[in-house]
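Re: the 80-residue chain
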Amino acid sequence: IDLAGKRYDQTVLVVPSIGSGLPLAGAVAGGVPIGAAMLLMERVFKNTIERLTRLQYRVTGPWHEPLVERLQEGGQSGKK
Protein backbone atom coordinates (compact mmCIF):
# COMPACT_ATOMS: atom_id res chain seq x y z
CA ILE A 1 0.00 0.00 0.00
CA ASP A 2 1.28 3.46 -0.89
CA LEU A 3 0.33 5.36 2.27
CA ALA A 4 1.63 8.73 1.06
CA GLY A 5 -0.12 8.49 -2.32
CA LYS A 6 -3.15 6.66 -0.89
CA ARG A 7 -2.99 3.98 -3.59
CA TYR A 8 -3.26 0.17 -3.69
CA ASP A 9 -0.92 -2.20 -5.51
CA GLN A 10 -1.63 -5.61 -4.01
CA THR A 11 -2.37 -9.22 -4.79
CA VAL A 12 -5.00 -10.76 -2.51
CA LEU A 13 -5.48 -14.52 -2.04
CA VAL A 14 -8.85 -15.69 -0.68
CA VAL A 15 -8.91 -19.25 0.69
CA PRO A 16 -12.26 -20.45 2.07
CA SER A 17 -12.04 -22.26 5.39
CA ILE A 18 -13.11 -25.89 5.17
CA GLY A 19 -14.59 -26.68 8.56
CA SER A 20 -16.43 -29.52 10.23
CA GLY A 21 -19.87 -28.03 9.52
CA LEU A 22 -20.45 -30.06 6.36
CA PRO A 23 -20.03 -33.52 7.98
CA LEU A 24 -22.17 -32.38 10.92
CA ALA A 25 -24.92 -31.22 8.55
CA GLY A 26 -24.67 -34.55 6.72
CA ALA A 27 -25.03 -36.43 9.99
CA VAL A 28 -28.11 -34.42 10.95
CA ALA A 29 -29.71 -34.74 7.50
CA GLY A 30 -28.76 -38.30 6.62
CA GLY A 31 -27.69 -40.00 9.81
CA VAL A 32 -24.33 -41.05 11.23
CA PRO A 33 -23.16 -43.09 8.18
CA ILE A 34 -23.64 -40.11 5.86
CA GLY A 35 -21.89 -37.77 8.29
CA ALA A 36 -18.98 -40.20 8.67
CA ALA A 37 -18.65 -40.56 4.89
CA MET A 38 -18.65 -36.79 4.47
CA LEU A 39 -16.01 -36.41 7.20
CA LEU A 40 -13.79 -38.97 5.48
CA MET A 41 -14.21 -37.25 2.09
CA GLU A 42 -13.41 -33.88 3.65
CA ARG A 43 -10.21 -35.24 5.25
CA VAL A 44 -9.05 -36.98 2.07
CA PHE A 45 -9.81 -34.15 -0.35
CA LYS A 46 -9.28 -31.08 1.87
CA ASN A 47 -6.16 -29.81 0.04
CA THR A 48 -7.74 -30.38 -3.37
CA ILE A 49 -10.96 -28.61 -2.35
CA GLU A 50 -9.01 -25.64 -0.96
CA ARG A 51 -6.88 -25.44 -4.11
CA LEU A 52 -9.96 -25.51 -6.35
CA THR A 53 -11.91 -22.93 -4.35
CA ARG A 54 -9.21 -20.34 -3.64
CA LEU A 55 -9.41 -17.09 -5.56
CA GLN A 56 -6.72 -14.53 -6.34
CA TYR A 57 -7.35 -10.84 -6.99
CA ARG A 58 -5.23 -7.86 -8.02
CA VAL A 59 -6.15 -4.58 -6.30
CA THR A 60 -4.73 -1.36 -7.76
CA GLY A 61 -5.55 2.34 -7.92
CA PRO A 62 -6.55 5.03 -5.45
CA TRP A 63 -8.12 4.22 -2.09
CA HIS A 64 -11.37 6.00 -2.95
CA GLU A 65 -11.84 4.07 -6.22
CA PRO A 66 -9.79 0.84 -6.31
CA LEU A 67 -9.77 -1.47 -9.32
CA VAL A 68 -10.29 -5.12 -8.34
CA GLU A 69 -9.52 -7.76 -10.98
CA ARG A 70 -9.79 -11.50 -10.52
CA LEU A 71 -6.61 -13.32 -11.54
CA GLN A 72 -6.86 -16.60 -13.39
CA GLU A 73 -4.53 -19.56 -12.85
CA GLY A 74 -0.95 -18.55 -13.60
CA GLY A 75 -1.47 -14.94 -12.46
CA GLN A 76 -3.26 -13.71 -15.61
CA SER A 77 -5.98 -11.15 -15.07
CA GLY A 78 -9.59 -11.61 -16.01
CA LYS A 79 -11.79 -8.57 -15.45
CA LYS A 80 -14.61 -9.18 -13.01
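The helical segments are 21-30, 32-53.
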